[in-house]
Design brief:
This protein has about 160 residues and is mainly α. The chain is built from seven helices and three strands.
Length: about 160
């Protein structure tokens, strides 16, 4: 994560775009028959990872938009432990979640490619960390995508 934190906004955007495509391509390569296979007890299936990424990116996108449009907005926590049960990962459509992920990525690429230097330095109030910049939040999201690409690769063996 430290590497992402020191990256410039342009470098972060390039990584965001590359990693988003990599995740989508990998997710699209999963045979439908394997989507719900779990590699072991208490491990997520490919479908769960795809749902998590869609939900996570929606949360991150909301954070970016709030930071851009409001003065020091409160950043709402993403309770990822509750999502699989509360939002019914077991019966959700992985293709719909993947489409959401891809669409959210495109939207954020478009929005943030037009962000000014002062936009990247705007702050939100993180529930644990206090003041964080848009760049900080975005760097965390880029690292999040990278981590789950690794998780999906491991899940697929």
């Amino acid at each position: 994560m430290g590497e992402m934190m020191s990256a410039t906004p342009a470098e972060l955007l390039a990584s965001f775009k590359r990693l988003g495509k990599e995740f989508a391509d990998l997710a699209n390569s999963v045979p439908v028959t394997r989507l719900n296979e779990s590699p072991g007890p208490d491990q997520w299936s490919a479908a769960y990872i795809i749902h998590h990424m869609a939900d996570g990116d929606l949360h991150f996108a909301t954070r970016y938009l709030h930071i851009l449009a409001a003065e020091k907005p409160q950043i709402i926590a993403f309770n990822e432990e509750e999502y699989p049960e509360r939002t019914n990962y077991a019966d959700r459509d992985a293709q719909a979640s993947l489409a959401c992920f891809v669409g959210t990525h495109r939207l954020i690429e478009d929005v943030l490619s037009h962000a000014s230097d002062s936009d990247w330095n705007r702050v939100g109030m993180h529930f644990e960390l206090g003041e964080v910049t848009l760049k900080d939040v975005f760097a965390k999201a880029v690292s999040h995508t990278e981590a789950h690409i690794g998780q999906l690769r491991e899940t697929l063996g």
